[in-house]
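Hey, resending since the last one bounced:
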Amino acid sequence: MKRQTIITMSITFLLTFCAGILLFAQDLETQDTAMPQKSRGAAIATQQPITAAAEPEVEWLWGEVVSIDTDSKQLLVRCLDYETDTEKVISININEKTTYENAKSLAEIKTQDTLSIDYVAALDGKNIARNISVEKDEGAEQVMLEENKAGAKATPGLE
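The structure tokens again:
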């Protein structure tokens, strides 16, 4: 008896849900056809968020530093264009809003460092860095740690 009640309630719920979808779908269709073409375009335009159009899309690149110009706060980075599968050099500008990871400022970045950069393309065509992360070589870090430990052990009185 319980099973039959559950099945009946499930079927009733499913049919009610489907009927509701069909009613709303027809309602939207009649609204579209009743509205003049110009009004429909205006309605669609007002539904889109304004911030999406004003806020440029953040892009990402990973590559090696070719050159650094600290005076104009600009980097040239060699990276792979994944769409064409070719190497290219991109100019990245740094501003006061740029954040850094594994570095404190542009002055700590050197040529041949590997960077991961989040940037946006400004309206004037410049690429503005949002975040610059210096990729650390784990092998080099391990060697430096071992050298530091060896130096500490060799220094008397530091054990």
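The mean pLDDT is 79.

Sorry for the duplicate.
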